[in-house]
Design a protein that fits this description.
The complex is a heterodimer.
Chain A: E1 4-7, E2 10-13, E3 19-25, E4 32-38, E5 45-51, E6 57-58, E7 67-73, E8 76-81, E9 90-97, E10 104-105, E11 109-113
Parallel strand pairs in A: 2-11
Antiparallel strand pairs in A: 1-3, 3-8, 4-5, 4-9, 5-6, 7-8, 9-10, 9-11
Chain B: E1 4-7, E2 10-14, E3 19-25, E4 29-37, E5 43-49, E6 52-56, E7 59-64, E8 69-74, E9 83-91, E10 98-99, E11 103-108
Parallel strand pairs in B: 2-11
Antiparallel strand pairs in B: 1-3, 3-8, 4-5, 4-9, 6-7, 7-8, 9-10, 9-11
Classes of the chains: A mainly beta, B mainly beta.
């Protein structure tokens, strides 16, 4: 199946710093990318939907200024957690799809904010 | 309301047993996904279905559109099958997936 990568796979940062997570579709052009957050033993929670070349659509309750999403090309989307705080510590997962096809999930990024 | 229900929530079985995980949804869909998440966190897309049945190795996924129900079967289960299995549905006209709560499967040797 298609491959989606995320970088970094884990990151530890100090409170107040910003962290950028990259999501790349390695062997296909993704018309849409999704960003999810997952707390321990819970299901994935959609944060935002990102279509290439347009602004991301955020889910209710997700702060746009806190979680900046950029989808600059058909193979790359980035999520920046700005001024991170300990409550932002979580597992962040992206997925990518071509229209009408299955979503391929990245391996996830584990963020720990101290 | 667009809902997805999985059962059971937890399942423990012995190696070699035939496993069935169920997923029911509330209204019409355009696609249903079965996903696997191992303890390390990464998610693997096992199947995408809109009708009928698909098979990959020891895994079989079926969907009944009229009954709004899908099953994931694992034949000759193995400890390495231990993971959380997630049903996710794209409802008709929607772009995003709605996830079931997941089924935690443990296969004992």
């Amino acid at each position: 199946g298609a491959v989606v990568s995320q970088h970094p796979s884990w990151v530890i940062c100090k409170s107040g710093t910003s962290v950028k997570i990259e999501c790349r579709s390695l062997d296909f052009q993704a018309t849409t990318m999704f960003w999810y957050r997952q707390f321990p033993k819970q299901s994935l929670m959609l944060m935002a939907t990102s279509n290439e070349g347009s602004k991301a659509t955020y889910e209710q309750g997700v702060e746009k200024d806190k979680f900046l999403i950029n989808h600059a090309s058909l193979t790359l989307s980035t999520l920046t957690v700005t001024s991170a705080h300990p409550e932002d510590s979580s597992f962040y997962i992206c997925s990518a799809e071509r229209t009408g096809e299955t979503q391929y999930f990245g391996p996830g990024t584990r963020l720990l904010v101290l | 309301k667009n809902e997805v229900e999985q059962s059971p929530q937890n399942l423990t079985a012995q190696e070699g047993e035939f496993i069935t995980i169920n997923c029911s949804y509330s209204v019409g869909i355009s696609a249903l996904h079965w996903l696997q998440q191992h303890p390390g966190g990464g998610i693997v897309s096992l199947f995408m279905l809109s009708s009928g049945k698909k098979k990959h190795g020891r895994l079989i996924a079926t969907i009944n559109i009229q009954e709004k129900h899908s099953s994931l079967h694992i034949t000759a289960s193995h400890p390495r099958d231990s993971a959380v299995y997630i049903c996710a549905v794209r409802f008709a006209g929607a772009q995003k997936l709605v996830f079931g709560q997941g089924t935690r499967l443990t296969i004992n040797p």
